[in-house]
Amino acid sequence: MEFTDQLLAAFPGTTITSGETVFHVGSNDEHTRPQFVVASGFIELFYRGEFTHCSHTFFSYQREGRYSLPALAYHLPPFQMVRSFQDHLRSYYLVRGESWWAALELGDGFISANFGALSMLTAEELAKRFRDGLETKVPPQKVTNFEVWSGEEFPTPHAFDDVNWNDVAANYSATTRQGIETLMKHTQHSVAKNGRIILFHGPPGTGKTWAIRSLLTTWKRWAKPAVIIDPEKLLENTSYFMNMLTYQNSKAKRLVVIEDADDIAEKDGTRNASLSRLLNAADGLVGASSDVLILLSTNAPPALLDKALIRPGRCLASIEFQPFGAVEASSRLGWSVDSAKSLAEIYELLGTVSKVTTDGVSAPTGQYL
User: Fold this and answer.
1) How far is CA 194 from the centre of its chain?
2) Residue 37 CB contacts under 8 Å (≥ 6 apart), including other chains
3) CA 251 vs CA 84, 149, 159, 189, 284: distances in Å
4) Which of 135, 163, 190, 343 is deepest in the core (most CB within 10 A)?
5) Which fold has domain 5-134?
6) What's the CA angle centered on 251, arms 149 and 288, to 5 degrees?
């Protein structure tokens, strides 16, 4: 296909030139900024047919400071510098080799590069050689990311260090531990065939929060957690509720976490609008069109849980967080006790934590909340 003035005129900033490389400022405001000369020049050369194929690569690296131009040159065939720009954020280079061009952008920790050549094979080989020589494989971070929602249009991103189940499993009684382990074995595929509500219930100090952290860590490859800190507002405000459910469409399942949900989970003899909206999100028309799980933690005993939440087909798991019986508590403590103890009480007896008193100070908090 022959390029014409009419075709090139459709692209701001492009001209037909011959001989030496020449750049012209176009109608796009960004073309007046020097760092965009590299990208604009590369695109102009592509339009003009100086090369007919282009291959892009993007990768990260780990090192002190950005790569220098000689370091980049070591991983490319010989070339000439055509244009360059550098500031405290980026370095930009437009270079020309024998029958190939490249536009390189370097940031702190990443490189973005476009390679142009007369064949796609050449462009791809240049991109691969460049990436293979400079990319640094970064080990995955051992953190679990989650969103915090508090009535705003957008959530606040947060993260905590991964909580591996094997590190905290001993903090739970045998019955509770078995229930958590069964829940954690679920996959994105298997939960789709079951209910959408997860209930963690039991007295304070039995480890519900740390179990939630470990569950989020275990499921982090396929579940995107959204922690709600104002559930009463969420369940009263329809637009807030729907914005949270539909925020960032992705293949990951949405895991809504509401802690201290006593007002929602406990039965009160009436079906208020807030609970109805939650149940609709779980398995009503709204739930049918959204890929969502809802995890509620509450201090309510089993007898006070609303039957609407725990009915089969709606409830994926209802796990009671029980104190350690006298035998298990004695084993954890290393001495005999004659009554059940919560995890918090065991940590206190071991001296890991202590209460604030008029003649004492508090000690660091253990992993039991």
Assistant:
1) 25
2) 23, 31, 83, 85, 92, 94
3) 40, 20, 20, 12, 21
4) 343
5) TATA-Binding Protein (3.30.310)
6) 75
143-320: which CATH architecture? 3-Layer(aba) Sandwich (3.40)
Give per-residue pLDDT as tens, 231-240.
888 888 878 8
C-beta separation of 271 from 308 below 8 A:
yes
pLDDT digits (tens, 9 = 90+) for 104-115: 999 888 999 999
Cβ atoms of 317 and 199 within 8 Å: the answer is: yes
Q: How far, in Å, CA of 292 to CA of 225, rounded? A: 10
Residue type, 133: G
Task: Say whether pTM exceeds 0.85.
Answer: no
Please check the confidence at residue 285 and state whether its pLDDT lies above 60.
no
- What the block records as the tokens of 3 is 């390029």
**H-helix or E-strand containing 60?**
strand 53-60
State whether residue 58 is helix, strand or coil.
Answer: strand
The answer, yes or no, to whether residue 203 has pLDDT greater than 70, is yes
CA atoms of 138 and 354, how far apart (whole Å): 41
Residue 369: Cβ within 10 Å count: 17
Contact between 368 and 229 (Cβ < 8 Å): no
Distance of alpha carbon 270 from the chain centroid: 38
Q: Where are the domains of the chain?
A: 5-134, 143-320
Residue 194 scores a pLDDT above 80: no
C-alpha–C-alpha distance, residues 109 and 64, integer Å: 9
Give me 265's structure tokens.
């989970």
> Tokens in use for 249?
């469409």
- The whole-angstrom separation of Cα 353 and Cα 347 is 6
CA 343 – CA 326 distance, rounded (Å): 12
